[in-house]
Amino acid sequence: MRFALIATASACALLAACGGPEKSQANDADANMSHNASPPATADSNATNAMIVLVAKPVSGERALKIMHERHEGMESIGKNNKVIRRELDAASPNLAAVRTAAAQIANLSGKASGWFPAGTGPDAGKTGAKPEIWQNEKDFVAKLSAFQKSARALSATAKGNDVPAIKARFADMGGTCKACHDKYRSEMHH
Known about the structure:
Elements: H1 2-18, H2 46-55, H3 61-90, H4 96-112, H5 133-136, H6 138-159, H7 164-185
InterPro entries: Cyt_c/b562, Cyt_c_II, Cyt_c_prime_subgr
Protein name: Cytochrome c
Organism: Sphingomonas hankyongi
């Protein structure tokens, strides 16, 4: 309880310091499944994104299942877009338009991911690859999620250019953030 109060106070202080949350598609109620009193996720606010997970209200029942489904679909889409980027960057002549589109989609979904892990959406709620350690080690999980979000935005920004080696480097950086989180917080799911 004390940790939640500290996290809430920190979130309020962060919002006050930066002038409040920015309005974006990521803040749209339908796009942000958290639908709670925590500050909305923005693509440019790592601290705010981190606080979303820390202060999110627990969910249950149909709401938990709906969020879990959105999380699963979002992660599947991130994986598919990752494959597009890998395929193109491994090609002799990468289709940079495809890389840009996939990188932008990953960056967009990474921002939404802050609302995908409220308490009550772990293995006890239903079939999920999310390990209970996510909610047991929130601070570490939030740091890893924030690192992924930052690297996804960096990849998307770099992909707007034509520097293939730089895009490959950013893609590798993002892959490292995915692996760091998945190694600790994701169990294999068999569909």
